């Protein structure tokens, strides 16, 4: 699945402050701009950052380092269960890495992800200094992808694998070590992919981008996307004050306060808007994904 392009909205919205009432500058009669205590309503601007990723695993949550090659399972970066066979956990590349032995069944396997697989990447290198033959194979949904990867038996250089997979629907990744010596790998990540090649974009907002005189009683922000979306596994929607970029409210996308129906995402604010204030909204990459 393609990524969500950054939105072409200005990050800052000019702060709209109410004039002090005077004989030359009488208070407005508009019920939206003034309350009984002459409090001005807020200004809202919205923006979103880069795009949606799909599957990823950095092995940060691997159990305590073990020097024994065993079957393992752990909760991965996205809060889902990954498994490995013939692997130990005392090696590193970027951080913790999974390390395969030199014989038997040696695999690392993801859970099933929806949304397909676009571009797959990971890092790998030999483990230890023996010069035995080493190799890796990539499987998606039980089907081998591309040729067997030869891992250098004489170099400790970290090699980046990167391949366009382009499989739609549910996907499960498995990487197999098929040589006669140890290999370690880290930083698995892939984008959504398959037949849908159009990136979702936000078409409209409520309140509208740059709107002024937004009622203080406003409790919801609504984003209308160009296609159906779903909540991501993680990410925040952050309401910030334009005056000093401080955070006014943060809503985790997994919170029930964030609801998705078709192409609409509705964010219920946890608190009231402040008077005489301008805000902008940031949406984290990955907070929403293609449905």
Describe this protein's structure:
It is a single chain. The chain is an all-beta fold. It is 0% helix and 45% strand. The protein has no helices and 22 strands. The strands form 4 sheets. Strands 2, 3, 4, 5, 6, 7, 8, 9, 10, 11 and 12 form an 11-stranded antiparallel beta sheet that branches. A 5-stranded mixed beta sheet has the order 14-1-21-17-18, with no helix packed on it. Strands 13-15-20-19 form a 4-stranded antiparallel beta sheet, with no helix packed on it. Residues 1-41 and 46-53 have low confidence and may be disordered.
What characteristics describe this protein?
eleven-stranded antiparallel β-sheet, 291 residues, mainly beta, five-stranded mixed β-sheet, 22 strands
- For this entry, what is the oligomeric state of its chains? single chain
**Secondary-structure content class:** mainly beta
**DSSP strand (E) fraction?**
over 45%
CA-based gyration radius: 25 Å
Along the chain, the helix and strand elements come as: EEEEEEEEEEEEEEEEEEEEEE
Strand count, sense and barrel status of the largest sheet are: 11 strands, antiparallel
Tell me the distance between the termini. Answer: 10 Å
Helix content bin: under 10%
With helices defined by DSSP (H or I, 4 residues minimum), what is the helix count?
Answer: 0
Beta strands, count: 22
User: What sort of overall outline do the alpha carbons produce when their principal axes are compared?
Assistant: elongated
The parts where pLDDT drops under 50 for at least 5 residues are: 1-41, 46-53
User: Taking all residues together, what is the mean pLDDT?
Assistant: 81
């Amino acid at each position: 699945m393609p990524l969500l392009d950054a939105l072409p909205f200005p990050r800052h919205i000019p702060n709209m402050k109410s004039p002090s009432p005077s004989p030359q500058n009488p208070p407005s009669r508009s019920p939206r701009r003034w309350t009984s205590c002459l409090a001005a309503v807020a200004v809202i601007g919205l923006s979103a950052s880069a795009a949606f990723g799909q599957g990823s695993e950095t092995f940060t949550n691997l159990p305590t380092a073990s020097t024994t090659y065993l079957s393992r399972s752990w909760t991965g970066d996205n809060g889902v269960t990954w498994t490995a066979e013939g692997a130990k956990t005392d090696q590193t590349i970027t951080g913790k890495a999974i390390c395969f032995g030199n014989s038997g069944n040696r695999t690392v396997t993801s859970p099933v992800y929806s949304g397909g697989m676009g571009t797959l990447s990971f890092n790998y290198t030999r483990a230890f200094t023996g010069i035995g033959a080493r190799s890796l194979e990539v499987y998606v949904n039980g089907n081998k992808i591309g040729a067997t990867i030869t891992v250098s038996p004489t170099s400790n250089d970290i090699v980046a694998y990167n391949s366009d997979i382009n499989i739609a629907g549910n996907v499960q990744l498995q990487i197999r070590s098929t040589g006669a010596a140890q290999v370690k790998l880290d930083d698995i990540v892939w984008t959504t992919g398959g037949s849908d090649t159009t990136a979702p974009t936000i078409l409209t907002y409520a309140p509208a981008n740059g709107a002024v005189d937004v009622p203080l009683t406003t409790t919801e922000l609504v984003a209308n996307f160009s296609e159906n979306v779903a909540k991501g596994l993680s990410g925040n929607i952050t309401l910030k004050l334009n005056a000093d970029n401080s955070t006014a409210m943060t809503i985790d996308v997994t919170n029930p306060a964030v609801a998705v129906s078709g192409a609409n995402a509705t964010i219920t604010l946890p608190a009231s808007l402040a008077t005489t204030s301008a805000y902008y909204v940031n949406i984290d990459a990955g907070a929403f994904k293609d449905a």
